[in-house]
Specification:
Strand 1 (about 145-155) and strand 2 (about 165-170) form a beta hairpin. Helix 1 runs antiparallel to helix 2. It is built from 3 helices and 16 strands. It has a 5-stranded mixed beta sheet, with no helix packed on it. It has a 4-stranded antiparallel beta sheet with strand order 1-2-3-4. Strands 5-6-7-8 form a 4-stranded antiparallel beta sheet, with no helix packed on it. The protein folds into 3 domains: about 5-65; about 110-255, no CATH class; about 265-390, Immunoglobulin-like, CATH 2.60.40. The radius of gyration is 31 Å and the shape is elongated. It is α+β, with helices and mostly antiparallel strands.
Length: about 400
Amino acid sequence: MSEFDDLINDAIGDFRSAEATIPAVTPGTAAVRATVRHRRTVRLTTLSVLGALLIAAPIAAFAADPHGNNPPPVPGDSVTPVPAESATPSPASPSAGTPASTPPDGVITPAQLGAVKVDFPAFLSGQCPTKGVKLATSDPKSQTKAWVEKVVHTDLDGDAALETAALVLCRSGEAPTSQVLAFDRDAAGNIVMLGVVVPENHRANIRDITARDGGGIIADISDFVACCGQSPDEERHQDREYGWDGTKFKQVAGPTVFGDPARVTDLQVTVTDVVLGPVTNGKRTGTAKVTVKNAGPNPSGRFYVNLQNCSFPCAGQNPVFEKMWVFGGYGSPHAPLAAGGQLSETITVTVDATFTEGTVEASVTAVGLNDMKSNDDTKPANNAVNFTIRAS
């Protein structure tokens, strides 16, 4: 065995040893990115050493040749390893000239994504399983399977290589909910999730995504999804930009709220339970106190409270409530509430004598000063509350 054979074998042995010491990819964006980057560096360094040895071998052989008057042999075309960060080969069909050890990039098609089982955050509705599932590649027209609406290929994590941003939807009722997930491949070519680029938000519906100059994505966000006879013209749309800040995915540009930012605040609604009185003329009545408090830093927009999602028939020809609106109504909301302010209103409940118990949801909505477009709220979780109506 020649000295150069020994050198090449030593280089390959070092590479194998380095690969064996790399820990398996663990969940989490930072761990995935660090492991993939380390493996790319090890492979690139090894390929560079091998390339240099392959070029040096014929030249050294010529120097040792006693027939030194002959010109040196011309080495064959050398392969210059291209870092994965700048290479964008198709993962499905790498070219014949691509070294077998060149790590694949993160360009993933919907079909490739749908062929593997993935885990990702659950949808707020609880519909569509998200653990160990294969994503559909088109709308399955059911509430039992999430699907990939669109993918874009862009640098999502600042390493100059392309990754895949996938707009994933889940049908919940008439309108789907949405989130954008980041996917890449590890050094073995396995698809791994890097994290959530745009989380689900009932007030930020993701309608489309495109690649952003310099990395990241631009998301077309709407305040709601028109359905059930609503006109799409009623939707408000914004372009919001998302990218990697060095430690996590976050919004990096564009508007952050719908409505007047100076009137985005924290409106809270509370309602006392209703204890029904004695039977009179076949009916029982009771009262509830509805309170709205502005616990945020800004004055609110105009607002109203509507009663909905009853566990029993509570509207129509035999209404339980005199009206399904409190503090004005949809067409005539209450005046704005100052920061720290609080208002209460008492409502009357009337039910048949046979009624025993039921629940009702009360929700507060803030709208513009001059229109009925809703304003965002800093803590939407306390914008709705359930109260109970019971006989005793």
